[in-house]
Amino acid sequence: MARVTVEDCLGKVANRFELVLVASKRARQIANGADPFVPLENDKPTVLALREIADDHVDAAILADDLTDMHVAVEEAQVSGERPQL
């Protein structure tokens, strides 16, 4: 099993705070059934997410999906006059 550290990933994202956001988003996706981009090797979703970041399979662009979803929800709520469900 290859050991991955935070330092391996810091060069792939802007800062450690963004790293937390990217890794947690990807780990949730994996935990919810998304196929990992790296071999499983009996790792937990958080470790898989960090390995994917270290291997350049995942980057901060993954966060844009959340922003797009929120923007769409707000626009739909404005049209319908309801409170947005974020």
From TrEMBL:
MF (Gene Ontology): DNA binding; DNA-directed RNA polymerase activity
One BP annotation, GO: DNA-templated transcription
Please list the reactions this protein catalyses: RNA(n) + a ribonucleoside 5'-triphosphate = RNA(n+1) + diphosphate
Keywords in UniProt for this one? DNA-directed RNA polymerase, Nucleotidyltransferase, Transcription, Transferase
Protein name, as recorded: DNA-directed RNA polymerase subunit omega
Q: What is its EC number?
A: 2.7.7.6
Q: Pfam families of this UniProt entry?
A: RNA_pol_Rpb6 (PF01192)
Traced from the root, the source organism's taxonomic lineage reads: Bacteria, Pseudomonadati, Pseudomonadota, Gammaproteobacteria, Chromatiales
> Nucleotidyltransferase among the record's keywords?
yes
Its family remark reads: Belongs to the RNA polymerase subunit omega family.
